[in-house]
Amino acid sequence: MKTQKVTTISQFISEQQQNFPEATGDLSRLFLDIILAAKIVNRDIRRAGLVDILGTHGSINVQGEEVKKLDVIANEEFISALSLGGDCCAILSEENEDIVRIKNPHSNKSKYIISIDPLDGSSNIDVNASIGTIFSIYKRISNVYEEVTMDDCLQKGENQIAAGYIIYGSSTMLVYTTGNGVNGFTLDSSIGEFCLSHPNIKIPETGKIYSVNEGNFNEFPEGVKNYINYCKQIDKASKRPYSARYIGSMIADFHRNLLRGGIFIYPPTNKDPNGKLRLMYECNPLAFIAEQAGGTASTGYERILEVLPEKLHQRVPLFTGSKQMVELAVKMFQENTIQSF
Length: 341
Ligand code: AHG
Ligand code: MN
Ligand code: MN
Prior knowledge:
By secondary structure, the chain is an alpha+beta fold. The protein has two domains: about 10-200, Fructose-1,6-Bisphosphatase, subunit A, domain 1 (Fructose-1,6-Bisphosphatase, Chain A, domain 1, 2-Layer Sandwich), CATH 3.30.540; about 210-340, 3-Layer(aba) Sandwich (D-Maltodextrin-Binding Protein, domain 2). It has eight helices and 15 strands. An eight-stranded mixed sheet has the order 4-3-5-6-7-8-9-10, sandwiched between helices. Helix 2 runs antiparallel to helix 3 (about 70-85). The chain is globular and about 65 Å long. 2,5-anhydro-1,6-di-O-phosphono-D-glucitol binds near residues 117 and 250. One manganese (II) ion binds near residues 94, 119, 120 and 122.
């Protein structure tokens, strides 16, 4: 029987760490906390149809207990694994209004802040479509042992030390970057390990998929309407029309486009001039991964990673994916002329 060498994510992380003799191992330990939380959340998602955790937060189950929505559970599980691990000093979560400061003897000396969207695509939980967790890691600016400040948290995306996501799809994968390329690991549930399955992921320069909630078409700026009409135009040479694919879990749309090539757009709308997606929890981590894979990410006016956040839950428009597609979409968005196709 032919045996293949398997690299688990823990082995991979420790091999990477050996390239940095000055590394203390703190970041590697933080990664292990994230991996543990991801496995716990994965277990709960896989059982979601069997136990009473689907549905709306606030309802009461037959035991008279409050039924927690899965995104609340995922948030609690990540916060608990990260707090117990003590390898970060603060957590910024889409589900928490304020900074969650971790105070224990170990975390007090940690320099890392982690930002998470514990469950992305929550509207898809109840219909068994792919969902995800998104995370990114920053180094605090102030000194360890001091109270973590808002300035420590509101850093530009280009300061990210690492970013990644877990996609709970037909298989569970963890994809991450530390600024040295992007690698993907698939969870082998029989051994409970994420194993390297997608080394050095590169997004194709262009693709044939566009992902946008076209139901909002009439709310979009003219430039975005033009790009969508361009995607639908028939032109053999450029392999158009492109295919429309939009799940409503950004992580699933982004992951597919990362592997196949494509563009994901959540533009400004008349109703929401900053779009819907959150800079700290969604756009920055995916922008870092996109760039590290050879793609790009823009608000339509500037590189996502250069936006200085003003508040934790700030929203920004997002154009991300294959370089050529994003560049054209951004150009048309900026021109914003009325065109007929
Ligand atoms: P979340 O579940 O974390 O709130 O994020 C949902 C986001 C994103 O995943 C998805 O692409 C987008 O919302 C869908 O929004 P629309 O339904 O407005 O298209
Ligand atoms: Mn989300
Ligand atoms: Mn979410």
